[in-house]
Amino acid sequence: MAVMKFFLDTADLTEIKTYAVMGLIDGITTNPSLIAKSGRPREEVITDICDIVDGPISAEVISTDHAGMVKEGVELAKIHPNITVKVPLTGDGLAACRELSEKNIKTNVTLCFTAVQALMAAKAGATFISPFVGRLDDLGQTGMELIEDIRTIYDNYGFMTEILVASIRSPNHVRTAATLGADVCTVPPKVLGQLLKHPLTDSGLEQFLADHRKSQS
Length: 217
Ligand code: G3P
Known about the structure:
This protein is of the alpha/beta class and 217 residues long.
């Protein structure tokens, strides 16, 4: 039976450490925007992340041409065996994905917005496909329908590419992804925090502690 994995979608080391001690983090995804937010060079941040989390760590290429992406991907993969090279869902990106897969380097094909794009990525040998559900919701579409379609297509043909649900904005996205049988959810720290919370947990704990104090006085 497959286990649903949780990746944290961040390059913030403090957030990563916070959730890593709870045993909740199976991997990390980053992108150029998240790395830019850290204010540090990509290689440095990625190396630090690999020291904290023992699982797939996605590092995204900046090149947009096939040869450039492969060169960059090969360099990134040297940082640590857990590195997963993230490439965009373009023709060059898929060519790079194919070549990196042949070199036994794990790949994450990102910026997926249609089920047929996901099918192409699987055929190119992607380890993970990253459909961006929140950005589709932003356009008035239902991002989760994409996850349902990809699950059906991959199961129809036995593709081993893992569905890594990205651009998650709420606990409800996580609930639906789990219901649909997605392999991985990559969640921003804010949403991971929300997943743990319930007002009845807080008020219940407060009540237990108040009763304990009363019994001691
Ligand atoms: O992993 C991709 C994800 O970071 C994109 O999220 O919220 O920028 O759409 P968002």
